Amino acid sequence: MATGTVLLISGVSDEDPAERRPPQAGSVAVDSSRLSGASAVPALPPAEPVRLRIGAIGVNAPMARVGLDAAGALRAPAASSPGVAGWYGDGTAPGSAGTAVATGHVDTPTGGPGVFYDLGDLAEGATIEISRADRRTAVFTVRAVELHDRKNFPGEKVYGSTGRPELRLITCGGRYVKGTGYQSNVVVYATLTAVT
Length: 196
Hints:
mainly beta; eight-stranded mixed β-barrel; 5% helix; globular; disordered N terminus
């Protein structure tokens, strides 16, 4: 198994890098009908996320701020930290209005599992908890899990905002090709449904 350091957002593509990067908070709108049935929970004020828990797949990981690379693509956490989930710190904070984005490795350079190794096994209705620096926990419910080809990555769908507090988790997935890495990305779509 090879390392999952290249996320779809930093993968090789014919798209302009600006079309593949996460936007600043709330700058892209999407059709809210794809999340119909989501509970309406008031948005939280911004606060740094500190820990991500996904009970269904055994994830309990610290979170670290990540940014963009020189081409404008979202960076993954350092390969030396495969157990850390990265949060796009220049975007929406998890639980605030808009779409928060978190990334993580599917595996490690030595072939072991990364923090998001089992992300593709999540099912609709699973919960994701993010503990925040303000001592609140934002609880998200999974609405969909999709596999997107890196070359045809639907940036607006993934990063776009309905104005509600949402979360996207992204990792590598699909077929692995030596020299170019994973050809797709797993994307989890989730909506804020509770605050504790």
